[in-house]
Amino acid sequence: MVTSHSSVLSGTPVVPGIVLAPVHVVRTEVDPAALEALERRGFDQPEDALAAYEAAATAVADGYARRAETASGAAASVLSASAGLARDKGLRVAVEKHLRAGEGLVASVGAAVEQFATLFSGMGGLMAERVTDLRDIERRVLAHLAGEPEPGVDVPEGISVLVAADLAPSDTAALDPARVVALVTERGGPTSHTAIIARQLGIPCLVGVAGATGIAPGTLALVDGQAGTIDLEPGPDAAARAEADLTRRQAVAAWTGPGRTADGHPVALLANVADGSSARDAAAGQVEGVGLFRTELCFLDRREEPTVAEQADVYAEVLAPFAGRGHVVVRTLDAGSDKPIAFATHEGEENPALGVRGLRLAADNPGLLERQLDAIAIAAERTGADTWVMAPMVATVQEAADFAALVRARGLKPGVMVEVPAAALMAHRMLEVVDFLSIGTNDLTQYAMAADRLATDLAHLTDPWQSAVLQLIAITAEAGRTAGKPVGICGEAAADPLLAPVLVGLGITSLSMAPAAVAAVGARLGSVSAGLCEDAAEAALGALSPALGREAVATLLG
């Protein structure tokens, strides 16, 4: 258990907010005795053991799929991805190999998962994040084989701070924010699945908190999602701080838009969406459009490329709710690296995060991009929505120009994502050939800082508050200001209410985020002037560390 001399634990802040509640520590493991009994029982033939594995894996995949149907947005996407991973033929082949080598079923499943976990970890980037999914699949499959209930988060009655070594998407997607009032994990980074879903739920969250699972269950703790701390010996003012923050959050919930500073400077607040369901949910709120439609998430489970007509139907579902209401930015397939798609992704790359992904897929398969653009154009014409199209992973002005020509030929507005530092440095030239830029801060940060964005021990580097990252954003925004063209943010940084004034002060014209984060960002911007945003930007750029930057901006904004 955590001792008294370490009563305040620190991690990476993900979702701001202050709550005071008892800690509930989660350990989602299968009963070891049940697994030992399963291994002793054995099977007569490897084929019998393999059949049992296939049945269990199918049951687990079906469970993920059912939960995905009742979820939305990021939660639905990651659950669907887990369902596909549970059905993966490569995982089945690895299990069969170990069974035929004479190993027991429990050992074979464990060895197969370990093989893929090692592979994914070595790839880095968001592929490393899927190791959490693999471990979750392993636990659930073994539970089925042992005749035990699938492991999961057992949330007690009343409110609690949920603490775990890590949480799988299947755990976080089903959480009730009325009972789980904060999330704290030992592993993960600011762009992990846990972080993304915590933003969607709108509950305070810290990741990378060393020693968190050593906290005694039931300990009353004060979680500060802005400072990045969990205080296990909260002082007498703790309840008042939590109450004041709750009042602030209730005031935030009453925000009705539109996005603008206190002195009327407009800032478009947009939604990140993944499908028709999440688009309809977003349109029911206060967003002014869609800043990022992640098209690849619609096709993670497809073995064959969908036809143009099939794609057009999917895209029209997202565009329709926003017809006559703002614009929708459609990102072409960001396949590769952490989002492998069977009909698009190159297999066997040694470093897929730096490999053939995003727009680079079109180099040897131009038809893939052209058919997608045809489908987007059909959906835009069908719905009448103001449709902008951007390409991911653009590194050169020539790439941007070639893409823009294809988009304009279909009557659409072209733009590119700024994720590669080279694109930020050449933003002024990029805007000579495209109509807008959108900064993906997740990848821009990891590439600028040369640090895997999911490596817990590098979370201090993969922080968008790093002054080097803010400088790249400033360069890009200034290029937009000079050209008179919009420059937005669509990475997870857009959802940070404290960072939002900094980004606006740097010259950013729109912020796109999970719809649940819009009110907090909008309320924060509505409380400050455009001049104060510029002061905040200067303070953040001059800070020696992200922590000092947050502190300086928080003090400046009061």
TrEMBL record:
Transferase: present as a keyword of the record?
yes
Pfam families named in the record:
PEP-utilisers_N, PEP-utilizers, PEP-utilizers_C
Q: Which GO terms describe its cellular component?
A: cytoplasm
Give the EC number(s) under which this enzyme is classified.
2.7.3.9
Q: Does the keyword Cytoplasm apply?
A: yes
**UniProt binding sites for phosphoenolpyruvate:** R294, R331, N442, D443, R453
Where are its TM segments located?
Answer: none
Limits of the PEP-utilising enzyme mobile domain = 160-228
Q: Which residues form the active site?
A: H193, C490
Annotated Mg(2+) binding lies at E419, D443
| Superkingdom assignment | Bacteria
- Domain PEP-utilising enzyme C-terminal: start-end pairs: 258-525
Q: Which reaction does it catalyse?
A: L-histidyl-[protein] + phosphoenolpyruvate = N(pros)-phospho-L-histidyl-[protein] + pyruvate
Subcellular localization(s) per the UniProt record: Cytoplasm
Where the record annotates domain Phosphotransferase system enzyme I N-terminal, the positions are 11-130
Q: What is the enzyme's class at the highest EC level?
A: transferase
Extract the GO molecular function terms from the UniProt entry: kinase activity; metal ion binding; phosphoenolpyruvate-protein phosphotransferase activity
Q: Which GO terms describe its biological process?
A: phosphoenolpyruvate-dependent sugar phosphotransferase system
Keywords from UniProt, A to Z, are: Cytoplasm, Kinase, Magnesium, Metal-binding, Phosphotransferase system, Pyruvate, Sugar transport, Transferase, Transport
Question: Required co-factor?
Answer: Mg(2+)
The family annotation for this protein states:
Belongs to the PEP-utilizing enzyme family.
* The protein's role, per its UniProt record: General (non sugar-specific) component of the phosphoenolpyruvate-dependent sugar phosphotransferase system (sugar PTS). This major carbohydrate active-transport system catalyzes the phosphorylation of incoming sugar substrates concomitantly with their translocation across the cell membrane. Enzyme I transfers the phosphoryl group from phosphoenolpyruvate (PEP) to the phosphoryl carrier protein (HPr).
Q: What is this protein called?
A: Phosphoenolpyruvate-protein phosphotransferase
- Lineage of the species this protein comes from: Bacteria, Bacillati, Actinomycetota, Actinomycetes, Propionibacteriales
